[in-house]
Amino acid sequence: MTEVQGIVQTGLYVITNVATTGYATLADGNISSGLTQTTDDGNDDIKWTITKLSSGKYTAVGLVYANYASASQSPSSGDTVKSSAVSYQWIIKQSNTAGQYLISPIDNDSLYWSFTSQSATYVKLSDTPSYWTFTRYTS
Fold first, then answer.
1. Which residue, among 81, 59, 65, has the nearest Cα to 130 in the 3D structure?
2. 0.85 exceeded by the pTM?
3. Which sign does the torsion angle of CA 102, 25, 16, 14 carry?
4. Pairing label, strands 47-52, 11-17
5. How far apart are CA 90 and CA 72, in angstroms?
6. Which residues contact 119 (CB under 8 A, 6 or more apart)?
7. Do the bridges between strand 68-70 and strand 47-52 make them parallel or antiparallel, or are there none, so unpaired?
8. 13 phi/psi in degrees, rounded to 5
9. For residue 34, is it left (φ>0), alpha (ψ between -120 and 50) or beta?
10. CB neighbours (10 Å) of residue 20?
11. What is the CB neighbour count within 10 angstroms for residue 9?
12. How confident is the model over 17-53, as pLDDT tens digits?
């Protein structure tokens, strides 16, 4: 596995929160289930197919359950990032620190994926930047 720097390209990745070192995961295949945090790196449910679209935006699909990471049409701070059968686009941009990224909904780029603490269960949207790494998975 290789940690990415620069522009995230289409591929299979593990998405890790820099502050908590927790992995973003879909723990089940139910539509509208929240993305959760896990430290277990032995499961395929921490792997995401990231697709870079021609618009420069991205989609994120969980490998195991094939559901998209999504937000509501009018996202606000405190909302949980949920799974959806419908494609949803995200902004993924590198921060001022190489290899660390911000993930924002296209409908409100002042919100960011976040774990509020080490023990946080769900990935939530926050107006406080939270940084993530993308580690490319190669079999």
1. 81
2. yes
3. negative
4. antiparallel
5. 12
6. none
7. unpaired
8. -135, 160
9. beta
10. 17
11. 12
12. 999 999 999 989 999 999 999 999 989 999 999 999 9
The span from the first CA to the last CA of the chain, in angstroms, equals 8
Contact in structure between 114 and 125 (CB atoms under 8 Å): yes
Structural contact between residues 109 and 15, judged by C-beta atoms closer than 8 angstroms? no
- Give the chain's length: 139
Q: What is the C-alpha to C-alpha distance for residues 121 and 76, in angstroms, rounded to an integer?
A: 18
- Considering Cα of 120, then 33, then 70, then 91, what sign does the dihedral take? positive
| Cβ proximity of 105 and 92 under 8 Å | no
Tens-digit pLDDT profile for residues 81-112: 999 999 999 999 999 999 999 999 999 999 99
Task: Read off the amino acid at residue 127.
Answer: D
Query: Smallest Cα–Cα separation from 25: which of 76, 101, 81, 74?
Result: 81
SS3 state at 64? coil
3-class DSSP assignment, residue 45 = helix
Q: Is residue 39 within 8 Å of residue 23, measured between CB atoms?
A: yes
| Amino acid, res. 123 | V
Smallest Cα–Cα separation from 25: which of 107, 115, 128? 115
